[in-house]
Amino acid sequence: MAVWVFGGRLGLRGYLGACRLLCPRFQSRSSQGEEDGDRLQSSSKAPKIPRIYTKTGDKGFSSTFTGERRPKDDQVFEALGTTDELSSAIGFAMEVITEKGHTFAEELQKIQCTLQDVGSALATPRSSAREAHLKHTAFEEGPVMELEQWIDKYSSQLPPLTAFILPSGGKSSSALHFCRAVCRRAERRVVPLVQMGETDANVAKFLNRLSDYLFTLARYAAMKEGSQEKIYKKRDV
Fold first, then answer.
1. How far apart are CA 19 and CA 34, in angstroms?
2. What does residue 61 show for φ and ψ, rounded to 5 degrees?
3. How far apart are CA 109 and CA 107, in angstroms?
4. Is-contact 87 115, C-beta < 8 A?
5. Residue range 71-93: average pLDDT?
6. I need a labelling partner for 136 at 20 to 30 A (CA). Which of 47, 118, 157, 230 fits?
């Protein structure tokens, strides 16, 4: 079983560790005053490597951070999965961008970390969350404002946009355009959860602003690399 938790995606062992922090019933102690987890760790001779596969999702269900079991095609997991796709697409784009020596690769890595926080917020549906869950997975407006600052920084260096640009402009720019398209899909998956009150509106705002950032950065990358962007031309009938 894989579950989502604040700061990333954890297996069953990580989930139980998180539960010990959040659930009083997990905070039992032995007669010697040790926590159960501490006693087990001290008695083991060698650390056990947890298995990646647990088989608990074989029937098509998975767990949220709140411990709720939902079908894997649930809206929550659709949003989580698409956010994971977005982070993977950005990771691929970073490999291309780093080869070109662009300094904004650091910004993209920071965005990947923020997407982990987005996943944590999405994996904590408010309908089944307690205050302790929400406290650890709250998504604030700070990352949205940071994206706006980055967008303004790059926009001020770009020529005015006078036509519809096709995804193009070299490998770095095209990779960023692909990330933008995945980001739009992630936003479409998140909006229903916001409308149902299952997640914070700042999550949708972040993804909305992130797509604008990726579009702007794609144009900036093309300009820095001296690559020509392709312009949409209406076909003659």
1. 17
2. -125, 150
3. 5
4. yes
5. 96
6. 47
Strands 8-11 and 2-5, bridge-based pairing: antiparallel
Task: Tell me the residue length of the chain.
Answer: 237
Contact 212, 174 (CB under 8 A): no
- For tokens 């079908």, the residue is 71
Give the tokens for residue 78: 């659709």
- pLDDT tens for 116-148 read 999 999 998 988 878 888 888 889 999 999 999
Q: Which amino acid is at 203?
A: V
| pLDDT computed for residue 64 by the predictor | 85
For residue 198, the number of C-alpha atoms closer than 13 Å in the C-beta half-sphere is 23
Cβ(215)–Cβ(177) below 8 Å: yes
Say how far apart CA 193 and CA 52 lie, in whole Å: 29
Tokens 């056990």 belong to 48
> Buried b / exposed e across 76-100, counting CB within 10 Å, b at 16+?
bbbbbbbbbebbebbeebbebbeee
Which three-class secondary structure state does DSSP give residue 69?
strand
